[in-house]
Design brief:
By secondary structure, this protein is an alpha/beta fold. It has a single domain, classed as Rossmann fold (3-Layer(aba) Sandwich), CATH 3.40.50. Helix content is about 40%, strand content about 15%. Helix 1 crosses helix 7, helix 3 runs parallel beside helix 4 and helix 4 packs parallel to helix 5. The longest helix is centred in the middle third of the chain and has 22 residues. The radius of gyration is 17 Å and the shape is globular. The structure holds NADPH dihydro-nicotinamide-adenine-dinucleotide phosphate and Kalimantacin. NADPH dihydro-nicotinamide-adenine-dinucleotide phosphate binds next to helix 1 and strand 5. Its EC number is 1.3.1.9.
């Protein structure tokens, strides 16, 4: 018997693929490998063609939908369309974050009210907005994951307002898990170690964070997006039944230090 879960005919929504380096893309490929039917969402029209060519690499044909998570109507419409086109929703991978680059360096308190609100809106509130919109369409044992980072638990230089956003996201995971648990829906987060993606590009001292982890983490190496995706598969499939409200660190053990 294979322990690799089979997700044939089950619909999963993956939100947050910018390019082939995105953690969400690794998650999509892993779910596709397991036979899942995929819906991929992108933030705006200009990202559509890039995503179309990536989606062409998948085994199953995916549905592509635009969904800017700052817009409640767009989110509701997206989930209504998903239900119409693909039936009940077995799971969602929320892999979205944003903060103004100017606030991701220098002093934490130099940020503006507007920068704070935008980072919290896109990076934390959006999880609740998405879960709320998907509520009528969830399968009876659906599972939701989001991506978080250690900078929400403790101070990491330059992570600044994004750390506050991740703290809000981590807490939202707990409140959502408690509210949706009675409906059979699980909500968890994966705290990923540093991975070179478009978001990571040109922000903070990313290279020194990578090398610090390599020198000090129990496994003495960095993690890959594929390793994050296999933990994602565990949480999104029946293998993770029984786990909710949890943050699993996929970071070579760095967080224990
Ligand atoms: P990517 O840049 O590949 O992904 C970030 C995604 O956020 C993009 O696809 C972007 O969409 C999307 N996004 C931003 N604003 C919006 C919006 N308004 N509506 C919809 N989507 C939006 O980077 P990662 O894969 O690294 O990031 C994914 C998640 O992983 C984030 O939550 C990040 O905080 C988290 N994470 C990343 C780590 C890392 O080291 N890379 C470590 C720990 C956590 P678009 O391109 O279409 O604008
Ligand atoms: C301590 C670390 C070093 C980097 C500091 C801050 C990183 C913040 C992540 C945040 C999501 C980055 C941005 O929002 C970048 C944005 O201002 C500019 N980029 C874009 O607009 C691109 C084009 C799009 C695709 O990006 C987004 N996000 O929409 C943290 C490191 C070690 C770990 C990381 C990178 C964590 C994380 O949360 O991503």
């Amino acid at each position: 018997m294979s322990i690799f879960p089979t997700l044939t005919d089950k619909t999963y929504v993956v939100m947050g693929i910018a390019n082939k380096r995105s953690i969400a893309w690794a998650i999509a490929k892993t779910l596709d490998e397991a036979g899942a039917k995929l819906v991929l969402t992108y933030a705006a029209e200009r990202f559509k063609s890039g995503l179309e060519s990536l989606a062409g690499e998948l085994k199953q044909e995916a549905i592509l939908l635009e969904c800017d998570v700052t817009n409640d109507e767009a989110i509701e419409m997206t989930f209504r369309s998903i239900h119409e086109e693909a039936g009940e929703i077995q799971g969602i991978a929320h892999s979205i974050a944003f903060a103004d680059k100017e606030a991701l360096r220098g002093e934490f308190s130099e940020m503006t009210r507007g920068q704070f609100a935008q980072a919290l809106d896109i990076s934390a509130y959006s999880l609740t907005a998405v879960v709320k919109a998907a509520k009528p369409y969830f399968a009876s044992d659906a599972s939701v994951i989001t991506l978080t980072y250690l900078g929400g638990e403790r101070v990491v230089p330059n992570y600044n307002l994004m750390g506050v956003a991740k703290a809000a996201l981590d807490s939202s995971v707990k409140y959502l898990a408690n509210e949706y648990g009675p409906h059979g829906v699980r909500v968890n987060a994966i705290s990923a170690g540093p991975i070179r993606t478009l978001s990571a590009k040109g922000v903070g001292d990313f290279n020194s964070i990578l090398s610090e982890l390599e020198q000090k983490a129990p496994l003495r190496r960095n993690v890959s997006a594929d390793e994050v995706a296999s933990t994602g598969l565990f949480l999104l499939s029946g293998m993770g039944s029984g786990v909710t409200g949890e943050v699993i660190h996929v970071d070579s053990g760095y967080h224990i230090l």
